[in-house]
Write a structure and sequence with these properties.
The protein is of the alpha/beta class. It has one domain: Thiamin diphosphate (ThDP)-binding fold, Pyr/PP domains (Rossmann fold), CATH 3.40.50. The protein is 29% helix and 16% strand. It has 10 helices and 10 strands. The strands form 2 sheets. Strands 2-1-3-4-8-7-10-9 form an 8-stranded mixed β-sheet, sandwiched between helices. The protein has a two-stranded antiparallel sheet with strand order 5-6. Strand 7, helix 6 and strand 8 form a beta-alpha-beta unit. Helix 1 packs across helix 6 and helix 5 runs antiparallel to helix 8. The protein is globular, with a radius of gyration of 20 Å. The protein starts with 45 loop residues before the first helix and ends with a helix.
């Protein structure tokens, strides 16, 4: 593995992946791809997310052993197997709390929590408000195919109303969850949306998310070709946020997430505020020796 170079100057590009200056670039996307070949169905949107993640890490020039990808259960949660970084294929819906513990113990690492709409919006949905409020410095990438693909096509929390599936044979009658709106309302300090069919643009969002000091939530429309193929649908709906979009305007971001008729791509909102793992360590200097027996006797 090539040694890590000196920090490089990187210039954002709207349609191309941000990269280091050629003379300083040593790690490539290939250095972040593992030996295990992806087992996703042909055309799965998660291929685009995998490609974007590898490109982003190469552009950031982070050594693979300094990156940990934590996932839950589902098709998208297989992603750590296909990377050369450290990875943890964990328990259904628990990628965020496990990643939180990891970041608290090892704040020097670049930590991802990655999963699908079922993993992060259903059984794991209760963890999102807390990580947003705490502002843990990690990047959460949600691959949304609007269906439970691994279990063969049941409706998910983000399936649109009327959607026919094995679990909703008469059509989905529950309103779909809005991941971007939820992240904004919970207080995430970085909220963005990408599209797996645009991996270069998605790579740039991941770069921004990793560089952001705090919790970054990136919602990715990642179609399932086998059970709910929405490529044509999103190809006709997606559009980039305006060049002059004000990332600091939270009410405007919430209003757009509530009312958008198109599917907007880019950074909806970004703010700077203290990171939980840094603030929590400020209490270390106040620690004192603890006598457990004396403490117990006080309440006996």
């Amino acid at each position: 593995m090539p040694s890590r170079p000196a920090a490089a100057t990187k210039t954002p590009a709207r349609n191309g992946v941000v990269a280091a200056a050629p003379q300083e670039l040593s790690l490539t996307a290939k250095d972040f791809r593992g030996e295990v070949k992806p087992v996703w169905c042909p055309g799965c949107g998660d291929f685009g997310v995998l490609s974007a993640t590898a490109k982003a890490l190469a552009a950031l020039q982070v050594m693979p052993h300094q990156v940990v990808i934590v996932s839950g259960i589902g098709c998208s949660s297989r992603l750590p197997y296909f990377m050369s970084t450290y990875g943890l294929h964990s328990v259904h819906g628990r990628a965020i709390p496990i990643a939180t513990g990891l970041k608290m113990a090892r704040p020097d690492l670049t930590v991802f929590a990655m999963g699908g709409d079922g993993d992060l919006m259903s059984i794991g949905a209760g963890h999102l408000p807390h990580v947003c409020a705490r502002n843990i410095d990690m990047t959460c990438v949600m691959m949304d195919n609007q269906v439970y693909g691994l279990t063969k096509g049941q409706g998910s929390p983000t399936s649109p109303m009327g959607h026919l599936s094995k679990s909703t044979p008469y059509g989905m009658i529950a309103k779909a969850a809005n991941p971007v709106l939820l992240a904004l309302s919970y207080g995430a300090s970085f909220v963005a949306r990408g599209y797996s069919a645009r991996p270069n643009e998605l790579a740039n969002l991941i770069i921004e998310g990793v560089r952001h000091k705090g919790f970054s939530f990136i919602h990715v429309q990642s179609p399932c070709t086998e059970f709910f193929n929405t490529y044509d649908h999103y190809d006709g709906l997606v559009e980039e946020l305006p060049e002059d979009w004000d990332r600091s305007n939270l009410p405007a971001a919430i209003d757009l997430a509530l009312t958008e008729e198109r599917v907007h791509l880019g950074v909806f909102y970004k703010e700077d505020r203290p990171m939980y793992e840094v603030e929590a360590r400020q209490f270390e200097k106040e620690t004192q020796s603890f006598d457990l027996l004396s403490y117990v006797r006080r309440f006996a």
